[in-house]
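Here's what a typical entry looks like (ABC transporter permease):
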Amino acid sequence: MRISDIISMCLGNLFRRKMRTLLTVIGVVVGTCAIVVMISIGVGMNESQEAMLAQMGDLTVINVYNWNSGGSGEQLVLNDEAVAKIQAIDQVDVATPIYYPRNLNARIYGGKKEKYYMYAYNVVGIYKSAMEKMGYTLQEGSFPGENSEPFTVLAGQYAAYEFRKANKKYADVIDPYPDAQGNVKDPYVNMLRDPMILKTEKMEEDSPDSTVVTQELKVSGILAEDWNKGYETSRGIIMDINDLKKLEKDYMKANKIKESDSDNKGYNDVTVKVNSIDDVEAVEEAIQAMGFETNSMESIRKPMQEAARRQQMVLGGLGAISLLVAAIGITNTMIMSIYERTREIGVMKVLGCFVRNIRTVFLMEAGLIGFLGGILGIGISYLISFIMNYVSMNGLMANENSGGFGFGMMGMFGGGGASGMPISVIPGWLVILALIFATLIGLISGFYPANRAVKISALEAIKHE
């Protein structure tokens, strides 16, 4: 028999007993829906938790510290050489020190005739090559490029509002937030357009006649405020670490300030950004093997992910029970079909039909029942998922508008996380696995009836009424 003949015969047999086939398919539909919807809730919980963690900090960032000491008892130094070794790890996208100058006190003047100034108390140095890769968001302008002139810097979103009038003794600053009428005043300076000059000031250990070091700055971009990235994205300045070190060194040299022991102990903090969330654990282990301490959101994310995985398994297991019941229904349907078609099976054998073809017919019928039930079940699962998300979102909005404390549908399933996230998420892999699983359930359920069909005696089958 050709495969087209087998398929045609299977479809004909299924539609011959429409009601029985429909009821059997419905059983598979219910089982498939149960599995897909239950697992989709678990996936939704996981994504909601990751979104919540992402609001707390970048999930692909690792902070490295030199608090630890090596096996010999010597203090490890987190210097440029150590940063280069970290950068050489395969999964690392970029690694850069976060450098705060220890021996620099300065103001940044802006506007014509240096009419305004801000205190440069939050100037941070990082590698120029890391600025664009660190995940900062630009509001205006551009990131400094490798060919940018020295002392090209980035300013925080509200850094311009730190400027005050130079001829005033009190802090004459402008509030960056809207007033009662919703209006926001412009700052005194436009950092992208106006000239910026950094001038050092005397420190406590300086002599009264200390030398002032002056350096022009060029602001290439304004960053969007992101507290997870650091206070400097709000009211600070980010510049190339080599420029900042040079500025500090020139000031110390001009004023004959000696380096302290702490100045030679490397960096206090290095930020590492990895290629993906899945690489964080491996990179942390590699850095810890070097002897350094690390910190990342992985320590929180991993236990939450394991808990979500257990929830998915429990929810999927509950759904699988429904599909098991459907499998029993398929087996029963196929056994009844064999009993009714005993004479037909005998005729097929007398006409010389191969045993494997007879087995294939019944296996394919059972597989088609599973396949059709899987297709319909997945479609209905999408509808159920949409309704659940729609009801949950509307309930959340109504609760926020009323000022209530409702927990929403996610709370009923033991979830929670970022508000506004869907509680049911059906990924592509779940659709494919559900369809394969439903079809396999059909094939497995039809295996016993198919074997029973090929064992029927041809002569007895022909005599069967």
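The radius of gyration is 35 Å.

More examples are in the samples folder.
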